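Please decode residue identities from the backbone states below.
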């Protein structure tokens, strides 16, 4: 009977985990993608995030920690085991965030962590604390919006608004776009529309 209860409990927990929506927003509107299936190495997780124009989350501030922690606690009874964007690059003296190259300035390690040795990559474990594990172990992961793309997108929207309000010259918007992506030869402005013209002869992008 006890075995049946344990099996049913595990099944319910598994079904509950599968039902969790992968795309999530924190209270401040930050977008995250949470994959809870344990089938990705750390580097595989990084690639999965990159395919979505995202990166493994870098918890480099107290605010970010509170966002991610509260989000995961709301979704899961216990931490499902998720890779985040920190590793030590095979060094033994420091951990850093892969997306920014910044060395850890604050940490939320679990008991007796980090263990180091062959453990080079960081995850959020069942206690919602950080643990280091071998990067080849398979877990889920947490992605966040690519910081560079998010920042530039916000700047583009601000410039477009200024352009719509006729408070900036069209050349300023054109130069800004070309600085972001030099693969575009020029920007053609038609009315309030901007058209990116790739230098490979492909179709312009509005």
């Amino acid at each position: 009977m006890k075995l049946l209860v344990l099996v049913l409990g595990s099944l319910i927990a598994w079904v509950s985990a599968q039902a969790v929506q992968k795309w999530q927003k924190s209270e401040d509107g930050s977008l995250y993608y949470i994959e809870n299936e344990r089938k990705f190495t750390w580097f595989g997780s990084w690639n999965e995030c990159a395919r979505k124009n995202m990166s493994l989350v870098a918890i480099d501030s107290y605010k970010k920690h509170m966002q991610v922690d509260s989000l995961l606690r709301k979704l899961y009874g216990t931490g499902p085991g998720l890779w985040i964007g920190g590793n030590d690059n095979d060094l033994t003296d420091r951990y850093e965030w892969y997306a920014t190259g910044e060395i850890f300035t604050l940490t939320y390690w679990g008991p007796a962590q980090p263990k180091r040795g062959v453990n080079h990559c960081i995850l959020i474990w069942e206690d919602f604390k950080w643990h280091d594990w071998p990067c080849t172990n398979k877990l889920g992961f947490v992605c966040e919006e690519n910081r560079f793309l998010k920042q530039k997108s916000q700047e583009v929207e601000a410039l477009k608004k200024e352009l719509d309000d006729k408070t900036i010259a069209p050349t300023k918007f054109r130069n800004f776009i070309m600085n972001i992506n030099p693969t575009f030869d020029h920007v053609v402005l038609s009315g309030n529309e901007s058209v990116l013209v790739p230098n490979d002869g492909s179709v312009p992008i509005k």
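Observation: The longest helix spans residues 2-19.
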